[in-house]
Amino acid sequence: MTEILLEWKDKGIEQQGDQNGGTPENEDRRTPEMFLDCPVERESYRNTLLACKKDLEETTDQYGSTPLHFAASLLSGRPLVQVLLHSNPIQLYQPNSEGWYPIHVAAYTGAEQTVCYFIRKHPEIACLRDSKGRSFLHIAVEWNRWNIVAYACRSPWLARILNMQDNDGNTAMHIAVQHGKKYIFCVLLRNRTVNINILNNKGQTPLDISQSNIPTGFSYLWNPEKMILLALTLCNASTGGQVGHFHDRYMPQQKQAGEEKESEKLTNTTQTLGIASVLVATVTFGVILAIPGGYKADDHFNGGTPTLAGRYTFDAFIMANTIAFICSVLSTINLMFSGMHMVGLRLRFGHFVICLFLAFSSVTSLGAAFALGMFLVLAPVARWTAIAICAMMMIASLCFYADLLNGASVARAQYVRRGNWNVDDILAMCDNLRLGSHFNEIWTQMSHQMHRTRVTES
Questions:
Q1: Do 337 and 450 belong together in one domain?
Q2: Which parts of this chain are annotated as the region Disordered (predicted)?
Q3: Are 375 and 452 in contact (CB under 8 A)?
Q4: Environment class of residue 338 by beta-carbon count within 10 Å: exposed (0-12), middle (13-18) or buried (19+)?
Q5: Distance, CA of 180 to CA of 388 (rounded, Å)
Q6: Is there a contact between 141 and 172 (Cβ–Cβ < 8 Å)?
Q7: Going by C-beta distance under 8 Å and a sequence separation of 6 or more, which residues neighbour residue 387?
Q8: Within a domain: 74
Q9: Residue 93 placed within a domain
């Protein structure tokens, strides 16, 4: 747009000055960039520009892009799009050198308002295809523009493009699965109009593509590729017709990882996890030497024992610290077995899974012990500070469930599509219950301590 303004400034104003025999007396000497910074001046300047230079609407650059292509690429370019489209609607049907129409450009940049405006004014452009046969929905899925995909899925008048295939026979669902776009996959899966059993030109369904994305060997359970495969399987998605022939000729070969590579990967992972496990064991052991509240003097009754012993909160603190220590020690032992090359690979992997569970439990128990210890020493003198610390620890614990919450989004998509509860929904509910149960004891101790404080004050 700045280039157009400069061209108009250099040619239009100078020609006007030459016709008048010199430079106009009231010539506005502001630069085009100054006009672009002011919305009112920008609107007036656009109208003046289009009135004086009608041929600019049909001007294209070296890539075949029209002014409407550039306007559609702006996230907040709807006012400019309205002016250009009202002046010359033909630009909406002019592709650039890559076959992209303005609606493809808007979908690429995620300009939802521009896409909505295009379709509302000219509904037929929703089916426009680029040189590869892709609609604007294909572009939005490939470039992870979930807002454009959500708009297409919630608009009944766009149902005809949800299963549209490109030159390779791929639908939007194929592309989402191929690139592992889990959030976009969930948006498409929630729409029952989307067909999950369409074959592309290679005879692949989305389920076949999802299976080809899973590497052999061990991998993380909550990876997007595994979540997508599980969701398609639970939705009864089908594979290609001739499965054996398909695997031999068409399906991309899965990543073959030999035992040596898997063993090296497992060894490197155990080294990283071992540092955290040993650190937790060291911290929990050091707590016994520096107990909250200290120890009684030797000349007192029960000298050398913890000062706060006998309180319910203190007992809970000791138990949480003990559980953290035991879990970290057992996790370290399992890590030793999972890192030994003399142990079979399957057995090593089993020890590694156990180690992950124990390490997770030890860190969680350590967090609970910290919150209980702070509450134990602060509650008598700064009750609300102690409560705030416990609340912050509970909020911080949500980071352990980031991947589990991602699984819940897939479960919700399956529920909308199938209309019944399935395994993923039950797992999501169990994870939420486990999240609440981890720090439920903290709230119990807080309530008990606050009740005792009120009784003492009364």
A1: yes
A2: 10-32
A3: no
A4: buried
A5: 40
A6: yes
A7: 375, 446
A8: yes
A9: yes
Contact, 362 vs 396, CB < 8 A? Answer: no
Contact 130, 99 (CB under 8 A): yes
- Predicted confidence at residue 266, as pLDDT, reads 78
Q: How many residues does the chain have?
A: 458
pLDDT beneath 50, residues of the chain: 1-2, 4-6, 8-37, 242, 245-246, 249-257, 422-424, 426, 430, 433, 437-445, 447, 451, 454-458
Q: Phi first, then psi: what are they for 23, rounded to 5°? A: -75, 135
CB atoms within 10 A of CB 205: 25
| Cα 285 to Cα 294: distance, rounded to the nearest angstrom | 15
Sign for the pseudo-dihedral over CA of 47, 51, 52, 53: positive
Tell me which residue of 146, 111, 159, 170 sits closest to 413, measured CA to CA. 146
Give the single-character DSSP code of 301: T
Q: Are residues 186 and 267 in the same domain?
A: no
Q: How many structural domains does the chain have?
A: 2
CA distance linking residue 318 with residue 372, whole number of Å: 9
CB contact at 8 A, 341 and 412: no
Both 158 and 263 in one domain: the answer is no
Is the residue at 121 inside a domain?
Answer: yes
Residues 411, 269 share a domain: yes
Q: Residue 152: what pLDDT?
A: 95
CB 218 within 8 A of CB 345: no
Q: Looking at the structure, do residues 200 and 263 belong to the same domain, yes or no?
A: no
The whole domain housing 390 covers 259-457
In tens, the pLDDT along 266-316 reads 777 777 788 888 888 888 888 877 777 776 776 677 666 777 777 788 888
Residue 60 sits at φ, ψ, to 5 deg, of: -125, 155
Tell me whether residue 336 is in a domain: yes
How far apart, in whole angstroms, are the C-alpha atoms of residue 339 and residue 345? 10
Of 172, 205, 238, the domain-final residue: 205
Question: Cβ(401)–Cβ(431) under 8 Å?
Answer: yes
Helices 345-378 and 440-457 pack at an angle, to 10 degrees, of 10
Do residues 294 and 367 touch, judged by C-beta distance below 8 A? no
Token pair of 435 as six digits: 């999240």
pLDDT of the residue at 241: 63
Q: Which of 160, 179, 205 is the last residue of a domain?
A: 205
